[in-house]
Amino acid sequence: MPIIAVAPLFFLLLMPHRLVAESAVKHLTIGAFSYLPYVDETASDFGSLAAITKLAFEVTGIEVHYKFFPLKRALREAEEGQVDGLIGCFFSEERSHYLDYSIPMENVPVNFFALREKHLRWDMEMLKAYYVGVQNGTSLATDLRKLGIPVEESQNNGMNLKKLLANRIDLFVGSTAWIQHELQHKFSVAERRRIEVLDPPFQVQKLYFAASKQHKNHQFIIERFNRGLEVIRKDGRYRKLQRRYQKL
């Protein structure tokens, strides 16, 4: 058969699968966890990252509904296919076995926090002598253990900050904006003054939307999200949403 006849036949064979995927994916249930200030369960539209994700899907004809869980539960729900995807994800090799990642949405600095009166600084060798607090379920715990750094996990940022103030850990590491938001809203001025951010950042992580690989159309979902995200970045709506939340 001539090549010129094969090419149209090949694309015709692909079309039914694509049309089925397009007609099947009209609604998504996306798992979320509180990741302030980016994702906020108490806000009317759940924060900037949730609003951006919803809009990116809307411009490609997909409706989004959010379900909130603690971080570890949200990851398990995605792994088991109980939700169609997750927002606010860092990339890790382990998670890539069950999550399909979008193009990056945000760059997020990750810093160490310490008591100001201890005058601590850090490098990779010094870290091995410290006990470092980290939130349970985050990829940071895995990263630190691989480097031989003693880690103590807690359920949330607030518990880690209380441990730091009580001298039960030497350092606390996490998303800088998230921890600063926690300090600003849940700790006294006197407590905030005792805590400092150590530079340089330990990491600059990227935040992603991720589709559960249990969803048979996960590649199509990621393709649609990426397309929608590019559209709202180009037409200015992405930046408009960012500026709106920066003022809050």
From TrEMBL:
Q: Which UniProt keywords apply?
A: Signal
This protein's record includes keyword Signal: yes
Q: Where is the Solute-binding protein family 3/N-terminal domain?
A: 47-245
Chain segments annotated as transmembrane: none
User: Which SUPFAM superfamilies does its entry note?
Assistant: Periplasmic binding protein-like II
**Which Pfam families does the UniProt entry name for this protein?**
SBP_bac_3
Q: Is Cytoplasm included in the keywords of this UniProt record?
A: no
> Cross-referenced PANTHER family, in alphabetical order?
ABC TRANSPORTER SUBSTRATE-BINDING PROTEIN, MEMBRANE-BOUND LYTIC MUREIN TRANSGLYCOSYLASE F
What protein am I looking at? Polar amino acid transport system substrate-binding protein
